[in-house]
Write a structure and sequence with these properties.
Structural class: alpha/beta
Bound molecules: pyridoxal-5'-phosphate
Oligomer: single chain
Strand content: 15-25%
Helix content: 25-40%
CATH architecture of the largest domain: 3-Layer(aba) Sandwich
Radius of gyration: 22 Å
CATH class of the largest domain: Alpha Beta
Distance between the termini: 46 Å
Number of domains: 2
Order of helices and strands: EEEHHEHEHEEEHEHEHEEHHHEEHEEHEH
């Protein structure tokens, strides 16, 4: 990385300059009553750069066909799927043969849990967590119909971290699967997934990591992590709506997937039912290239040509560094507003730049609607982190207001957001 400028935490000024990327996002031109829109809805899906839009359009115009045909567009489609696997392998530190595609994370996780469930029965146990999105709870909870016992790890409600003592206690010799999120999409907690995977390895359990929220906020290295399966979704990191599943070679090979008879036995195709979202894969390739191009600006290339993996890591590191001071300023600013309560880990704790809060006297929906009218887009509710929101005692009052920072957000937008929340708080 090039030497970053010193950051000014109090102003939220980023340590590095990513302002060049704003020009790449056509949606940032959107205005409401002449005011530019600030997109803080990233954890629900980021904005999409033009290169991704172009790749989708290009596929549909020039390369659109089904697979394995004896003609150009079909051959191009086969190539795109293979390049898609290579791209996502570079994104996750995997091998292309370990990358499968699907409709979204939830659908892939259901297919995965059904396949794993074929080997489970009464007496077996699965460990999930109270912090997770329902997409990494529901598919496992449903296996209770096989007589499997599902245990859910407690969350410390003061700082929304996982109770790791409870985790250690719940994992035992009967544990067959541990399903845990990399980071919380509701409050930004980053979990000690390395330790979680070790716990699984100690008892011979299959480990499944939901990296959907984390994927935009830090680089992922599945080999270093050692997990068996990891899932993410391209629409959370600038891509189209497309689910991605990493399966460690041996783990993927022994998976008994539900599939059509003519479908390949070998991974990764064994879990890919029906025709894939080809244009989505074309867009996902462009999304990884987009992140690589960010990395190009910060990587020292004087010692040789970097690999795409190197560029992805540099790009994700730059994004993380860019967002950190803005998140700090956001949390500090929110805590100064009367009636605001911020939920989640401390500023310096392992966390993403996703920040959630409540405002006394207003429902989260009222706050989000007021902000929305001002052209400031934020989510409200439980974001399918239903159990966490219940544990926080917020289920009946509409959950949380969630602000998600993305690399196209600026410190000026954060100031505008804080001013708007303050004015809503003062007005009462
Ligand atoms: C942490 C987390 N896991 C899983 C999902 C579900 O992903 P998908 O929409 O691809 O099914 C989401 C979606 O918001 C999420 O934030």
């Amino acid at each position: 990385m090039s030497t970053p400028m010193p950051s000014s935490a109090s102003s939220g000024a980023p340590a590095i300059d990513l302002s060049f990327i704003r020009a790449e996002f056509p949606s940032l031109q959107l205005r409401i009553d002449g005011q530019p829109v600030s997109f803080f809805d990233g954890p629900g899906g980021t904005q999409v750069p033009k290169c991704v839009i172009d790749a989708v359009v290009r596929y549909l115009i020039f390369e659109n066909a089904n697979t394995h045909g004896a003609f150009l567009t079909s051959q191009k489609t086969d190539e795109i799927i293979e390049e898609g696997r290579r791209s996502m392998a570079d994104f996750l530190g995997a091998d292309p043969s370990e990358i499968a595609f699907g409709a979204n994370m939830t659908t892939l996780n259901y297919a995965l849990s059904r396949a794993i469930g074929r080997d489970l029965g009464p007496g077996d146990e699965i460990v999930i967590t109270d912090l997770d999105h329902e997409a990494n709870r529901g598919p496992w909870l449903d296996l209770a119909e096989l007589g499997v016992v599902i245990k859910s790890v407690r969350v410390n409600t003061e700082d929304c971290t996982l109770d790791m003592d409870d985790f250690e206690e719940k994992v035992g010799p009967k544990t067959r699967v541990i399903a845990c999120g990399y980071a919380s999409n509701a409050v930004g907690t980053v979990n000690d997934v390395k330790r979680v995977v070790e716990m699984g390895q100690e008892v011979g359990a299959i480990t499944v990591i939901d990296a959907v929220h984390y994927a935009l906020h830090g680089s992922i290295d599945v080999k270093n992590l050692g997990c068996d399966f990891l899932l993410c979704s391209a629409y959370k990191f600038f891509g189209p709506h497309l689910g991605v599943l990493y399966g460690r070679k041996d783990a993927f090979r022994s998976l008994k997937t539900y599939k059509l008879a003519p479908q390949e036995e070998a991974p990764p195709a064994k879990i890919e039912t029906g025709t894939l979202n080809h244009e989505g894969i074309a867009g996902a390739i462009a999304a990884v290239d987009f992140i690589s191009r960010i990395g190009e600006r910060f990587l020292d290339t004087s010692r040789g040509v970097p690999s795409r993996r190197d560029l992805v890591i540099a790009g994700m590191t730059a994004i993380e560094e860019y967002e950190k001071p803005m998140a700090k300023r956001l949390i500090e600013g929110l805590m100064q507003i009367r009636g605001v309560k911020v939920y989640g880990p401390p500023i310096d704790g392992p966390r993403t730049s996703t920040v959630s809060f409540t405002l006394e006297g207003k429902t989260p929906k009222e706050v989000a609607s007021d902000l929305g009218r001002r052209g400031i887009f934020v989510w409200d509710g439980d974001f399918y982190a239903t159990t966490l929101v219940k544990r926080l005692g917020l289920a009946e009052s509409g959950g949380l207001v969630r602000i998600g920072l993305a690399p196209y957000n600026t410190p000026e937008e954060v100031e505008r957001l804080l001013e708007a929340i303050e004015s809503i708080a003062i007005r009462g």
